[in-house]
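Handoff note, outgoing to incoming analyst
You'll be picking up this chain. Sequence as last confirmed:
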Amino acid sequence: MPLLRLSPSLRAKALACALGSCAGALHAADYPPRKPGLWEMKMGDGAGGANSAPVQTVQQCIDAATDQALRDMGQGMGKDACSKQEMRREGSALVIDSVCKMGTTTATSHAVVTGDFGSSYRMESSSTYKPPMMGKSSGSFVMEAKWVGPCKAGQKPGDMIMGNGMKMNIIDMMKGQPKK
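Most recent structure output, in case you need it:
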């Protein structure tokens, strides 16, 4: 199933993670940089049951400049939408708490990110929505990312390949948006 067929809340989180701003925007300087190359991200709701959304797989080609640009973009998105953005280390994990407006809904999220950002990382997030969004008052999200090697021939930093084969370049899309 393509990314566009996910529930709106899961789609928003999946896109935010792909853009480097998981669980609300983070202070770009505090979020560990990812190893340059091709990353594969598997995203789902973490429910694991018959009612869970199918896991979506996205590949993303990055270099250091692209990874920084995506983190900066995530920070900018949160600056406008989030009244709370806190990140702290607890042992080897990053713990992120955020309160963000999504339209008329306030999303309160708690996420834990583990891994080394050089070979793999995992993010587990739970959120509550007030008022409910699309009939849901809460949700969860899990993303597992792993470095799979250098970007493939013909790929450039910023290229994202969706599970359905659709390819887009996030950096090119960002350049095409009008400045605020």
